[in-house]
Design a protein that fits this description.
Distance between the termini: 99 Å
Strand order of the largest sheet: 1-2-3-4
Structural class: alpha+beta
Number of domains: 1
Shape: elongated
Number of strands: 4
Number of helices: 1
Radius of gyration: 30 Å
Oligomer: single chain
Strand content: 25-35%
Order of helices and strands: HEEEE
């Protein structure tokens, strides 16, 4: 029987110890970096989603405020409502769309909740001469929604507008 010779026949195959160690070193460096990138992108996507939902919830609260009777406040006074719970993410479970499922510690994993504070103050306008005038016919309504994204990130969204004491202007 003859032994075949050539480029691949009759030579010893395999990787050297140096090649294996270099490859393992690259894997040890690459995998944690890839995991961190994936984790950070997931947290950023979650934060972005909750900011969008908080802005939408604030707009809905402003629109509900437009439908309520006009609040007449004297200069220097304000009316604060809240904090009250708002749902920022139902996590696909649309059956739990009422705020009764929210709690102080948010132990219910079927929804993601935040809190809203509504502040109504008389609108203040500044003239070109710098004189400040408090309006009796326009209220400034600000809605702040805040939530805990995780242990370290506590974002908030503030949405504000002026509401006139005239249904035709709103």
């Amino acid at each position: 029987m003859t032994l075949k010779t050539g480029k691949f026949w009759g030579t010893r195959g395999g990787f050297t110890l140096v090649e294996v160690l270099v490859t393992l070193g690259l894997v040890v460096i690459f995998l944690p970096v890839a995991g961190a990138i994936l984790t950070n992108s997931q947290m950023a996507a979650s934060l972005s989603k909750h900011k969008t939902e908080a802005t939408y919830a604030a707009q809905q609260i402003i629109e509900a405020q437009r439908q309520d009777p006009f609040v007449v406040l004297s200069s220097g006074h304000s009316q604060v409502t809240g904090p009250s719970w708002v749902i920022l993410d139902t996590k696909g479970n649309y059956n739990n769309s009422n705020t009764g499922v929210c709690s102080t510690y948010n132990t219910n994993n079927t929804v993601f909740c935040g809190q809203a504070v509504v502040t109504i103050t008389p609108a203040v306008y500044t003239s070109t001469s710098g004189t400040k005038t408090t309006s009796t016919t326009v209220d400034h309504v600000a809605v702040q929604i805040y939530w805990n994204e995780n242990r370290f990130i506590h974002p908030s969204v503030t949405y504000a507008t002026d509401i006139a004491n005239d249904p035709m202007l709103n």
